[in-house]
Amino acid sequence: MVYQPIQTRFGMLRGREALEAVSLTLSGATLRLEAILNIEELYRCRLEFDGVRSYRVTALDDFLGDLSSSFDEVIGSEWAQSAKHYQVITYHFALEVCCVAGQIRISDSENQ
User: Fold this and answer.
1) Rounded Cα distance, 58 and 38, in Å
2) Structural contact between residues 26 and 20, judged by C-beta atoms closer than 8 angstroms
């Protein structure tokens, strides 16, 4: 497996402190993670995963995956053979999603 970091307008997100989860909701086949992005300033962000087939949440202290980046596409994953596998590292947990597509949207400031 290869962990391919997803590039944002701030570049690659690194470390568990980069994302602090606010809420995680599943509506139909769309999973949304609302979070605070900590990149020198605070920004609101939303990670959206469409066509979700399955997902798992693991306490970060128990997670055995790669922690180099905070948002990756996992290439060559056996778990998501005919879909995409994304991994998100937050301050408290790791989120893995098997889905059709994933993206991150970042607001201009934490207050929006």
Assistant:
1) 21
2) no
Q: pLDDT tens digits for 19-28?
A: 999 999 999 9
d(CA 70, CA 90): 7
For 45-57, write each residue's pLDDT tens digit. Answer: 999 999 999 999 9
> Is residue 45 within 8 Å of residue 38, measured between CB atoms?
no
CA gap 19, 7 in Å, rounded:
14
- Does residue 56 contact residue 75 with C-beta atoms inside 8 Å? no
Instruction: Note whether 88 and 99 are within 8 A (CB).
Output: no
Say yes or no to pLDDT of 68 above 80. Answer: yes
Closest C-alpha to 71, from 57, 90, 58: 90
